[in-house]
Amino acid sequence: MATEDKNRATAAAILPLVGGAANVSSIAHCMTRLRLGLHDRSLVQDDALKAVPAVMGVVDDDTYQIVLGPGTVARVTPEFEKLVEEGRASAPEPATTVTAEELASQGAEMKAARKAKNATPFKLFLRRIANIFVPLIPALIGCGIIAGLNGLLVNLGWLTSVTPALAAMASGFMALIAVFVGYNTAKEFGGTPILGGAVAAIIVFPGVANIEAFGQKLSPGQGGVLGALGAAVLAVYVEKWCRRWVPEALDVLVTPTLTVLISGLVTIFGLMYVAGEVSTAIGTFADWLLSNGGAGAGLVLGGFFLPLVMLGLHQALIPIHTTLIEQQGYTVLLPILAMAGAGQVGAAIAVFFRLPRNESIRRTIKSALPAGFLGVGEPLIYGVSLPLGRPFITACVGGAFGGAFVGFFNQLGDAVGSTAIGPSGWALFPLLDGNHGLGATIAIYAGGLVVGYLAGFVATYFFGFSKDLLTEFNVSQEPAASPATAAGTPAPVTGPDPLEKTPAGV
Membrane-crossing residues (predicted)? Predict the structure, then answer.
């Protein structure tokens, strides 16, 4: 009960700081962030939000995102939804209507201005792809950990009567993941979700083994998540076409029938083969890349992942990760990309030592480091390295060295992979898998983290500050809105915020 009270208290602290229930148009959450659609962005009190103890930081994107961390966000969101519903129900009817119209008008103008400046068709498409796959991450994590536990028990020869049940739990979701992808795809693209799932289900149906296409027998699961995504998108367009041309009296019978029939035939006699070839090519290329240029590939992937995240382009990797997990049981890319977080942690520790008199920044680092070690990088990125400038670049250097380390062992034939996507840092240990035993896999990944920490620290300590920047920031200050608030630690109001200035050493 105490935990529920704590989560409700967090939700209650957040709600008035985002403009109250009347200002909230939509509520969702991902692995670490509470994502809110807001009518009027100007009503949000950013600094006060960052000072809420459970809040690690905020990100103003297509939605307003409040970083709460894994586990916490899944518990706070339902409480927040209840409070919003209660607030709307208790608000006076006339005032609610008028206020909502005014806020919607102002919010629409601000949102349109931001979208015109920042949004591109490609990034919007990638967000849609992320919206399809992100809801699947909790199941991937749960099933991945069960798969790891089952593998450990099998290797040790323990609980042999239980391991078949664990194998079924771990494999059941992956066997039907195409159905969930189809369902989410249709929902995201404006179709009927269950029709998207129905068409995608064809891909995993055992009976397709009796069908021949392009001169060869199909196999259940051929095309995987990519085929399911394509099939569901096609189903959405067929359904929308039917809605325009089929008479309303016949719509309930004709539209779903034609949607499944047309999309299903195209899937069976086209998409499954094409998507299967693409999926195979992705797996082959990933194996080739790390087998032949593992250290170099790891250097590039680990070094550029943080900028990809900042630009939102990392979302393009989600279907690739899922395809590799579906094909090989794990993705060899994620442990390398996770090294970017290690570089970030090492850089933050170096900043801590380089700025011994700036208590506000040091307090931010101390409060954000535990989350950073567990793979939650937003507090360190937005509260420390990015505002300072150079430390963000040196953090990327640390990620590059850590990625090169893991990639080098992949090049030697020791594949290091993750059975799920989402976690990184220390939180990835329970999800690790490879081709040379769990002990070797864990040792290589841990070694990569250590290399990333050390490289990020050394690069930042010696090259992360110019003389002017070091002089400017290495002062004893207690700012009113220091980056400490980005990690959820309020700072006393005694002076200006040094991070509001443009770093001179970038």
Answer: 132-153, 165-183, 190-209, 250-275, 295-318, 330-355, 392-409, 442-463
Query: At a CB cut-off of 8 Å and minimum separation 6, what does 177 contact?
Result: 136, 224, 225, 228, 322, 326
Give the Cβ contact number of residue 395 at 10 Å: 36
Pick the closest to residue 432 from 444, 304, 168 (CA basis). Answer: 444
The one-digit pLDDT tens for each residue of the chain (506 residues) are: 466 688 899 999 999 999 999 899 888 887 788 989 898 888 999 888 988 888 888 888 778 889 888 778 888 998 999 999 888 777 654 433 333 333 334 434 444 444 454 467 777 788 888 899 989 988 988 998 998 888 888 888 888 889 999 999 989 999 999 999 999 999 999 999 999 999 999 999 999 999 988 888 999 999 999 999 999 999 999 999 998 998 888 888 999 999 999 999 999 999 999 999 999 999 999 989 998 988 999 999 999 998 888 777 788 899 999 999 998 889 999 999 999 999 999 999 999 999 888 887 888 888 889 989 988 887 888 778 888 889 999 999 999 999 999 999 999 999 999 998 888 899 999 999 988 888 899 999 999 999 999 999 999 999 998 887 788 777 664 444 444 444 344 333 333 333 333 333 33
For 260, the 3-state DSSP assignment is helix
* Alpha carbon distance 68, 429 (integer Å): 22
| Axis-axis angle for helices 224-245, 318-328 (nearest 10) | 120
The encoded tokens of residue 393 equal 């670049």
pTM: 0.74
Domains of the chain: 2-119 (3.30.1360.60), 134-289 (no CATH), 329-500 (no CATH)
Mind giving me the DSSP string for 108-174?
A: HHHHHHHHHHH--HHHHHHHHHHHHHGGGHHHHHHHHHHHHHHHHHHHHT--TTTHHHHHHHHHHHH
Helix (H, G, I), strand (E, B) or coil at 212: strand
Q: Which is nearest to 339 in space by CA: 250, 433, 424, 430? A: 424
> Using CA atoms, how far apart are residues 216 and 280, in angstroms rounded to an integer?
16
- Is residue 30 part of the annotated active site? The answer reads yes
Catalytic residue among 30, 143, 242, 396: 30
